[in-house]
Amino acid sequence: MHIFPPGSAPVTSRPYHVNPPVAKQVDAILDQCLAAGLIQHSTSPYSSPLVVIPKKSGGVHITVNYRKLNKLCALSQLPIPRVDDTLDKLLKGRIYSLFDMKSSFHQITVHRETIHLTAFVTSSGLFEWLKMPQGSSAAPGWFCKVVNEVIKNLRGVASYLDDLIVFDDTPATHVGTIRALFERLRTHNLKLTPPKATIGATEADFLGHTISPDGVRPNGAKVSALTKMPMPKDVKQFVPFSVVSATTVSSSPAWLTAFDL
Fold this sequence. Notes:
Blueprint: E1 2-3, H1 20-36, E2 39-41, E3 48-54, E4 60-64, H2 67-72, E5 73-74, H3 83-88, E6 95-100, E7 120-122, E8 125-129, H4 139-150, E9 157-160, E10 163-168, H5 171-187, E11 198-201, E12 204-206, E13 209-212, E14 215-218, H6 220-228, H7 235-250
Parallel strand pairs: 3-7
Antiparallel strand pairs: 1-5, 2-8, 3-4, 6-10, 6-11, 7-8, 9-10, 12-13, 13-14
């Protein structure tokens, strides 16, 4: 990530207002991030505002609004895989295991020449990321590139962002594939979230779809969401309806069957 054009003035923003009770939660998270080596105090001329997102559990999640910075950055165009292309890889599987990468982006180290660009401001001061932050337009593509390099040439393994799936046709092969994946992750010091793992399933939910030896189909939650959507009455309502319906219908086993209009 580099600034384009070179010599552009640093982008700055004032911190967003956060009410005192939430500010205490944010300070606690920042202390944890400092202790974990994810961030450090900063003197950077750049500053992007911290964004606080409430959780259903009552806690908060933090990210950064890098909108101004993203406009200045010359980024490598690293694509995120298409969901349908990823699902197509799984069609030969009969046994599935799912894994979630722990803290995803925060497992990737920021290049030392880029650290100052990640600076973000809160009511408590200025900080900068030592690990890849959320909010940067470069982050998803770089994360996918790293994961794809790690699992490269591993037969029976596919990924989409921080989700990994292992698929095989026999139990013995499946165990071998999982071991090979774990060895790759260990070599590159990448960690998983054990409580989120599913191992040896004959049917699994992945990327909003149910995967089984019979093929790929939209999962129940996705179909339910579509059936409960009101019929669109204008173009503005039609756009989200068409996106949901298209991704649902295109993964239906009958999608390639000829039909009359």
